[in-house]
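User: Just a sanity check before I run the rest of the batch. Below are the structure tokens for the first item. I only need the designed sequence back.
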């Protein structure tokens, strides 16, 4: 074979297939995903819902693509080629010293990056059911949406690398690029708000008129995004390309395609013509990614040292013994996040509120907020399951210090999780108050939503304890995650069954019965699991640390 890069790519694919065959758990995971995908596709076939205009789907793509593009670009501008490096450490060892032209190696990295972008868009295939029900989306349409997402993410990483290499070593230039991106984003958001404001102002006289005005504002916002938002750099162009194909606006689709090609050519030219060797720029990113992979294989959390830390006041000044962990966690949150929330939590909250807007838009013709609420609450709970797994409790038990505190293990366990539960309570308020306003939910239902959210936080925290107590000696992080998901599904089953039962019996109006059933089952189950796992911090050998 003439090309060593083609040979390297084929060998990597062959080794990945061999690895999958040697590990049946990975095959089981693939089969499980395929079965869930098939179930989603079959469940979305038959529907009697009136179809919404496809321009709304274009507006949704503009919002989603733009969120992912901005995250990718800003992260890449701050630290290289985004969260998913263009080259692995093995590529650095084999390709960088080889007598290959840097441009060929770069094209190899770009091809690999495009493949990763396609894999990251795989989860969009699971959205077929509601997209088909609301917009009549077919399988081909969904594939095009995934392709648009992959192109958006791919171009975001390439543009980030171009900006990073051109501003490397010059903080002022990097700050100018960052402010330019923020300025363009703020301008588009201001235009979106301006297009919605007249509808809200007209309906501000009464509650009923305000409700209709909010739906009118959503219509105006969707019209703005589908007409003007498609010209937002890169992400808007990707949405305009796919949306133009859907709606038959081929002129708009062609313009967006040309703009994307131009952006790709300019970014690639900036990287190739850069006076600095891009090898040095991607080396640090590859090393950080390799350290994360090594930590994952060893069953340890990856050590990530932020470049900028807001120090402010030093010292705890409060707490003694195990209670010092609570104030330590609060201090770490203040330095690394915003208020009590991490950046990932803020992203999850933004996505959930955005989905609430989207579902209220989709189900507005039915005149019933129950379906929209169930969809939003289910999705937010699913995302909460993963956010809880990344809490500070998992980091704390990986270190020896918590085991050395001369206090009862149950007391240490409660203080180690106190910050997580407090943050979850505040998060529930900040999340479901705006969701209640968006979905036009009453104050009683909103309060119950907050309590149900807290009950799931308590349940998922107890699930963390259960997994550490039973499977703490398992070193594979993938197996730990699998056991964690299965355990949470079992723990949440009583609340889900009771909630669905009370919802179907219609003993209480709306979804009040469902929330009460969830709360009534989650809290006792969580407290029981916590009590049974109270000695998880008795010996460090239990967790294999």
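Assistant: Here's the designed sequence for the first item:
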């Amino acid at each position: 074979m003439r090309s060593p890069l083609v040979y390297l790519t084929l060998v990597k694919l062959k080794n990945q297939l061999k690895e999958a065959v040697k590990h049946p758990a990975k095959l089981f995971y693939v089969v499980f995903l395929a079965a869930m995908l098939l179930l989603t596709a079959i469940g979305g076939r038959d529907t009697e819902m009136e179809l919404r205009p496809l321009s709304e789907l274009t507006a949704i793509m503009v919002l989603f693509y733009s969120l992912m593009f901005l995250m990718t670009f800003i992260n890449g501008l701050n630290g290289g080629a985004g969260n998913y490096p263009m080259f692995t450490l093995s590529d650095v060892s084999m390709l960088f010293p080889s007598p290959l032209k840097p441009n060929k190696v770069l094209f190899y990295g770009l091809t690999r990056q495009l493949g990763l972008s396609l894999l990251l868009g795989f989860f969009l295939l699971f959205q077929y059911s509601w997209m088909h029900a609301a917009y009549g989306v077919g399988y081909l349409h969904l594939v095009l949406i995934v392709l648009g997402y992959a192109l958006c993410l791919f171009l975001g990483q390439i543009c980030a690398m171009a900006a990073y290499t051109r501003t490397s070593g010059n903080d002022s230039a990097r700050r100018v690029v960052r402010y330019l991106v923020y300025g363009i984003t703020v301008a588009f958001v201001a235009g979106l708000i301006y297009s919605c404001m007249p509808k809200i102002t007209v309906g501000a006289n009464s509650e009923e008129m305000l409700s209709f005005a909010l739906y009118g504002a959503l219509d105006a916002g969707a019209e703005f995004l589908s007409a003007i938002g498609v010209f937002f750099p890169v992400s808007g162009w990707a949405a305009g390309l796919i949306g133009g194909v859907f709606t038959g606006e081929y002129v708009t689709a062609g313009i967006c395609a040309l703009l994307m090609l131009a952006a790709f050519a300019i970014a690639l030219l900036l990287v190739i013509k850069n006076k600095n060797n891009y090898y040095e720029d991607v080396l640090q990113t590859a090393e950080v990614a390799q350290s994360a992979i090594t930590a994952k294989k060893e069953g340890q959390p990856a050590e990530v040292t932020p470049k900028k830390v807001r120090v402010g006041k030093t010292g705890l000044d409060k707490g003694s013994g195990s209670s010092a962990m609570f104030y330590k966690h609060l201090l770490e949150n203040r330095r690394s996040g915003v208020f009590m929330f991490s950046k990932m939590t803020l992203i999850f909250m933004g996505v959930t509120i955005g989905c609430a807007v989207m579902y209220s838009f989709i189900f507005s013709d039915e005149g019933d907020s129950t379906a929209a609420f169930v969809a939003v609450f289910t999705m937010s709970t699913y995302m909460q399951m993963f956010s809880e797994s990344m809490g500070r409790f998992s980091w704390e038990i990986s270190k020896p210090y918590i085991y050395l505190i001369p206090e009862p293990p149950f007391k240490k366990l409660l203080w180690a999780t106190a910050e997580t539960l407090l943050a979850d309570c505040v998060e529930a308020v900040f999340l479901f108050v705006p969701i209640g306003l968006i979905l036009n939910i009453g104050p009683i239902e909103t309060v119950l939503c907050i309590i149900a959210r807290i009950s799931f936080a308590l349940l998922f925290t107890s699930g963390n304890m259960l997994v550490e107590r039973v499977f703490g000696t398992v070193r594979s992080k993938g197996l730990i995650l699998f056991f964690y998901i299965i355990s949470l599904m079992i723990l949440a089953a009583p609340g889900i069954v009771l909630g669905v039962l009370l919802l179907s019996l219609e003993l209480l109006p709306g979804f009040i019965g469902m929330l009460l059933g969830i709360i009534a089952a989650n809290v006792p189950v969580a407290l029981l699991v916590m009590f049974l796992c109270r000695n998880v911090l008795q010996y460090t050998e239990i967790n294999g640390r």
